[in-house]
Amino acid sequence: MARRILVTGGAGFIGSHVVDAFLADGCQVSVIDDLSSGRREQVPQGAEFHHTDIGSADAARLVRERRFDVICHLAAQIDVRKSVADPAADAGKNILGSLNLLEAVRQSGAEDGSGGVRTRFIFSSTGGAVYGDLVEPPTGETASKDPQSPYGTAKLSVEYYMGYYARVHGLDTVALRYANVYGPRQDPFGEAGVVAIFCNRLIDGKPLTIFGDGLQTRDYVFAGDVARANFLASKAELPAPAGVDSRAFNVGTSVETNVVELAEQLREVSGKSAATIEHAPARAGEQRRSGVDISKSARVLGWEPRVSLAEGLGRTYEWFVSLRAEAGA
After folding, report:
1. Is residue 241 part of a domain?
2. Which member of 30, 37, 51, 259 has the lowest number of beta carbons within 10 Å of its beta carbon?
């Protein structure tokens, strides 16, 4: 019997790739998305779509009644700047919306003793925003946490709530702490949105704007590799929970790339080596370095990235070019 999968945020950038991965395995996939940032046309064919918010009674009812084998929870308020401007709205979506789903799983019965479904709840957390600048990269899962934004704080809070639900109610929870995800279908929001922004500016023949000296680093991981991490996490044999970090896994490359290097690689793969790079004032409070240690994911999940940065940037740029062509731009 095909596994029943729910992907929240499945009309979004990363979520739609996760849907692709499970459909390719023959799973029955349902999608919840309120389309606040996702797009209906990005939901892959073959997935059942529910236009609703993760904090709604409809979403909770769907989780209780369907008793999914796996829930990949990606729906979120994703803009760090918006979280700073309105922390309460960020928490309402990212914390309370997540709690609505976790409560629904609990109410459906994580294990009802009758051979019923045990749902694995896979949460899309962040490896860039929960660690902060306390530890020199690449950062392991047990490193000190120092989120520097309401967004990172909310993501870490959900992980602690998941730890509670695992200990007290027996829920099967997993946190995937993404580095900076980029790839086709990307929008310009979030840390890795710079890739989308740079691609569009190259197509338009505009300068690439770098804030500050451009030596701030990020760990860029391709969306298809992130989708495969979700798929492997859904099947992995995992130890019993023993603290919030025990079921957390970094998903990145363990390689830091600064913004200047990123701009130069994009100029090369786009064939626009003459594109101008200009600098603007640095953004206040921006994290200086970010990179995650993925050795635990390799050891426990059997996951490692397959797509190099050069290949991934090339595929992403070509996707943006094709998107423009389809739009007649």
Report:
1. yes
2. 51
* Whether residue 114 has pLDDT greater than 50: no
Q: How far apart are CA 227 and CA 118, in angstroms?
A: 22
| Distance in angstroms (rounded) separating the CA atoms of residues 157 and 31 | 24
Percent of the chain with pLDDT over 90: 82
Q: Do residues 9 and 116 share a domain?
A: yes
- 26 and 118 co-located in one domain: yes
Distances (CA, A) of 153 to 114, 129, 303: 38, 8, 26
Instruction: Quickly tell me which residue has 């704007």 as its tokens.
Output: 209
| Euclidean distance between CA atoms 180 and 226, whole angstroms | 10
3 state SS of 151:
helix
Q: List the beta strands (DSSP E) in 86-216.
A: 120-126, 172-178, 180-182, 208-211
**Cβ–Cβ < 8 Å for 145, 197:** no
CA-to-CA distance for 96 and 100, rounded, in angstroms?
6
Whether residue 178 lies in the annotated active site: no
d(CA 307, CA 182): 11
Residues 123 and 260 placed together within one structural domain of the fold = no
The one catalytic residue in 131, 151, 165, 178 is: 151
What mean pLDDT comes out for the span 191-217?
92
**DSSP of 172-203:** EEEEEEE-EEE-TT--S-STTHHHHHHHHHHH
Cis peptide before 281 (omega within 30 of 0): no
Q: What is the pLDDT of residues 142-159, one digit of tens each?
A: 999 989 889 999 999 999
Number of neighbours of residue 215 by Cβ within 10 angstroms = 12
How many domains would you assign to the chain? 2
